[in-house]
Amino acid sequence: MSFDEKFISVRTGFYDIVGKFFQNLAQFFGYPENPGMPTLFTVTDEVDGRSQFLNDLPKRITYFPPAQRPETWFETLFGPAPRVEVLPRYIYETKEEGFYNFYIENYKNIFFLPDWLSEFLQVRLHICLDISSLEIIREVLFIGLVLYSQMVLLRIAISWLIWINPYTFPWSYLAAAVDWTEDVLQGIVPSVLGVNVTGSVFLGALGVVADSLNHLVFTMPFLPSEAEETKLVINNEMKDVLVFHYLPVLWYKYRIPNDIREFWYYQRPDILTYMETAYKDLRINFLPDSVYQNAPSIGRDFFHLLFREGIHIPPPLHL
């Protein structure tokens, strides 16, 4: 008999004592009638199908730092400026859906502004059709993050060069701009084999934030929640897309911006005619404010009557 076999009875007795102790302890909590927390949850077919749909969506691939694609001799010599890889919006017009329709390809890693923020930008700040200001803000943020990440890289490289004192001119400006990140993260991020990796962790966080700007989609004049999931054939390939079409809900909930209505009235009467015909039952004012301000009270009622009947008012002649 081996030495281990002599202690089998002792080991078995110890296991029985410990097991009996836990059974007696569990009785205070309702054992064995209390089954504890369920290990499996019932998932409805709708939730399961939605989860499977999101898992099957492709992932949009972008790179940070952005890929170098020089287009001029200057960019070839000195390098191109960093650019945001915006997800394109494909605008289209139809007789049934109107003039302000667009669709985007659907990916699992794209995201949108919250509905409340998109509504605030459109209603309060009047950023509706022209989103160039939002694009400029995103471009500036992206370029700023790219430049700052290069500063972090340079600071990390200098820390490995022992003959350079980072706290002397001109390196002191670089240290002042970057070293605050170490003061914040040094108590959170541990060292690896005695090496401080806070700079690398912060650099990775910068890359995630900057790359997320590539996947941010602006949906003006629609709210992000108005997206309709469908499939379209693009380049002979069936793809999942998000379609924004028909009348934006904010144009029904609030007044349509007056500059848009003036544009319809004076330059695009075809759009005005479509709006008055397609949505005349919604009682929306599609005419510019100047039409009512320059008309007497009887004229205003006349304009309302024509509008309700779906009759288009031609623009006035300018001599």
Describe the structure.
The protein has three domains: 1-41; 73-217, no CATH class; 255-308, no CATH class. α6 (132-159) runs antiparallel to α8 and α10 crosses α11 (269-278). The strands form two sheets. A four-stranded antiparallel beta sheet has the order 1-2-6-5. A two-stranded parallel sheet has the order 3-4. The chain contains 13 helices and six strands. The longest helix is centred in the middle third of the chain and has 28 residues, at 132-159. With 319 residues, the protein is an alpha+beta fold. The chain is flat, with a radius of gyration of 32 Å. The termini are far apart. Mean pLDDT is 82; it is low at 315-319.
Notable characteristics:
disordered C terminus; 319 residues; two-stranded parallel ribbon; 6 strands; 3 domains; alpha+beta
